[in-house]
Amino acid sequence: MKLVAITGGIGSGKSIVATMLQVMGHKVYDCDSRARALMTESDEVRHKLVETFGKETFLDDGSLNRQHLSAVAFGNDEALARLNAIVHPATADDMLQWARQRASLGDRVAFVETALLRTARLDRLVDQVWHVTAPASVRIPRVMARSGLTAAQVQERIDAQRDEERIADGEQAIVNDDKTAVLPQVIRLLESIIPQQ
Fold this sequence. Notes:
The protein contains 9 helices and 5 strands. The chain has helices at residues 14-23, 31-41, 43-53, 66-73, 77-104, 136-147, 151-160, 162-165, 182-193; strands at 2-7, 28-30, 109-113, 128-133, 172-175. It has 2 domains: 1-27 and 108-190, 3-Layer(aba) Sandwich (Rossmann fold); 30-106, Rossmann fold.
């Protein structure tokens, strides 16, 4: 089975590509949603979070105290690195387990949607990378419309993801600039890894 990463910066349209693939019947592992789930579902991850960030990391009902975690980790590079050192390996392990299951079910290809391909070291675990791109002039309004962030706040997030934005040698680009049709690009890439019979 081929395992393909779908990546790109904030507002580039990774989720649009992932949705297209799901509509076509392909399975997609969403790193963001699984990482959030593992923070509450995995006893090991919960224990490490409490040990590192305090018992107030979880609310009385057992749910993650996002406000506390954001206040402690974001804007503090050392704390963010500690958080990533807990969550990223757990997510990678969960993703590999999912990929093994997909392969055992006979899937010829499966996909992993991630904004942090290199940061989480997932680039080493996939066979191919599809990098979704769009200019900042398109991405900023997209993110503002869905999140309520200001243009400056979106630009800060784009700037913080510079290393993730670089398209490395061998990665396949998908242009999602609101002018270029995305579906034909996705179909072409699919046909390159799953030849039509």
